[in-house]
Design brief:
The protein has 500 residues and is mainly beta. 9% of the residues lie in helices and 39% in strands. The chain binds CU-O-CU linkage (C2O) and copper (II) ion (2 copies).
Length: 500
């Protein structure tokens, strides 16, 4: 359905977007060009419209280890009116939050009451291939799927969302996603802020209309990714949270389809990063701002002591160096904190959080390079040969009948994501494993503060090449890896590896 839209739009939009642009010369015979990658560069993302931060932040219900999730059309109150959304009952716009101990056996029954197929991918869980929500493993409309697995990994913030190829973007954007928190003894021993002082935040952008959450990406929006004008946190547009003058633990997920956030506090408060996709870092790192891409998680301590009661401040997204892409040109408020209660806590930030051994690059038995540039001249494909310009990895589009990479279990590999000639940000994500980021060349030129420890998604900005070290263990089977810009993923920017 999206594809038909693009074809329909391509004639009009290409001409309109290109007039007056500096690359107009490159786009000679536009009629044969189905999709033009460079158009996304000139199209600014939808401008964010802030609400009035008068609705209290709330949290999805908690899920149990024996849980039914019913994917269904439902309704949510957004911007004052109740509109149709998708949701996982027993919650609405977001599914319930799982919170389980390492070692738990989990049994989740998906009832698909949507009018189309869906499935659930457990993003960040190291579980068997047949439970992972591969795009081949579906629950048809009216059908069911039983997910059963045992948690065998360290504490961390993971999440779940649909993964039906070519429809992931729509189902996530319209409301299907949820958090999956794993606890363990190592983390508990740190006595991090907990209970009301541990705040999970799902940050997303939505396009809110009176008739629902609109999802109808134009050709340009497939290029840049689909973005919304309303920033919602835990499914609430522009909310506020009352806090006390003490430490808080903010556990954040960028659950957006395409939008990057450069998170910071309006009063320039320190953000003490203690964890990321794969759990705790070795040591805390203090920053003033940090970029988070779709699919990534951040575990951050913030100290509100010293902030006078009565103060209002914001979690914001600041402008950022966008490497020629359309994002990063607007700063906006995400969540308001009202410092409401004076309180003294005795918490001190542990100097050491966890044991993480860096795996030496020299242990890798193989290096695989993935060209994710997608620049129109890059694959040597002329614009007029009838080949559609699509988001590809190594020139290939997703094909579930083709294994792209064959990997031997219990080997370490280096995977290189090469966006050096590209012009769009690509958060690259691997299923079934966590990896360590070795280095970044070009663009930002270095690892950022949140990229130590264990990651499952890494942002590769235009001009950058990022190398990661992947220890493939013994979780055999067929897994996907892809760009977590969901429009890119649905467009085909996804391949498969087979671990045997
Ligand atoms: Cu969160 Cu394959 O994705
Ligand atoms: Cu995943
Ligand atoms: Cu991408």
């Amino acid at each position: 359905m999206q594809r038909r839209n693009f074809l329909k739009l391509s004639g009009l939009s290409v001409g309109a977007a290109v007039s007056g642009s500096s690359i107009a010369g490159l786009l000679v015979s536009t009629t044969s060009c189905k999709k033009e990658h460079h158009i996304g560069l000139m199209t600014s993302p939808v401008t964010v419209t802030e609400g009035n931060f008068s609705k209290p932040l709330s949290f999805p219900a908690q899920a149990g280890i024996n849980q039914t999730l019913t994917a269904q059309a439902t309704a949510a109150n957004l911007n004052g009116s109740t509109i149709p959304v998708l949701g996982y009952q027993p919650n609405s716009l977001l599914g319930p939050t799982f919170r389980v101990n390492n070692g738990s056996a989990v049994n989740i029954f998906l009832q698909n009451n949507l009018s189309e197929h869906t499935n659930i991918h457990w993003h960040g869980l190291k579980i068997p291939a047949l439970m992972d929500g591969h795009p081949d493993q579906l629950a048809m409309a009216g059908g069911t799927f039983r997910y059963q697995f045992t948690i065998n990994q360290r504490a961390g913030l993971s999440w779940y969302h649909p993964h039906p190829h070519e429809n992931t973007g729509k189902q996530v954007f319209q409301g299907l996603a949820g958090l999956f928190i794993i606890n363990d003894a190592e983390e508990a021993a740190l006595n991090l802020p907990s209970g009301q002082y541990e705040i999970p935040l799902v940050i997303q952008d939505k396009r809110i209309t009176t008739t629902g959450i609109a999802y109808n990406p134009s050709m340009e929006e497939v290029m840049a990714g689909y973005m919304g004008e309303s920033i919602v946190v835990n499914g609430i547009h522009s909310p506020f949270a009352e806090v006390a003058t003490r430490y808080y633990r903010l556990r954040m997920l960028n659950g957006s389809n395409a939008r990057l956030y450069n998170l910071a506090f309006s009063n320039n408060t320190d953000m003490i990063i203690i964890g990321n996709d794969g759990g705790l870092l070795k040591n805390p790192v203090t920053v003033k701002d940090i970029l988070i891409a779709p699919g990534e998680r951040l575990d951050v301590l913030v100290n509100f002591s010293g902030v006078p009661v009565g103060t209002e401040l914001f979690l914001v997204s600041k402008e950022f160096a966008h490497g020629g892409t359309a994002q990063g040109k607007q700063s906006f408020n995400i969540l308001k904190f009202k410092v409401a209660v004076a309180l003294t806590d005795s918490f001190t930030v542990p100097a050491s959080l966890s044991v993480i051994n860096s795996i030496p690059a020299s242990s890798a038995v193989k290096t695989r390079t993935f060209d994710i540039s997608n620049a129109m001249e890059h694959h040597g494909v002329p614009m007029n040969n009838g080949m559609q310009m699509r988001h590809r990895i190594n020139g290939k589009l997703f094909d579930s009948n083709r294994i792209d990479e064959n990997i031997s279990s219990n080997t370490n590999e280096i995977w290189v994501f090469d966006n050096s000639k590209g012009d769009e940000p690509h958060p690259m994500h691997l299923h079934g494993v966590f990896f360590q980021v070795l280095d970044r060349t070009g663009g930002r030129g270095a690892k950022i503060a949140s990229e130590s420890g264990w990651k499952d998604t890494v942002l590769v900005m235009p001009g950058e090449t990022v190398r990661v070290l992947v220890p493939f263990e013994n979780n055999k089977g067929k897994f996907v890896f892809h760009c977590h810009n969901l429009e890119h993923e649905d467009d085909g920017m996804m391949l498969q590896y087979q671990l045997s």
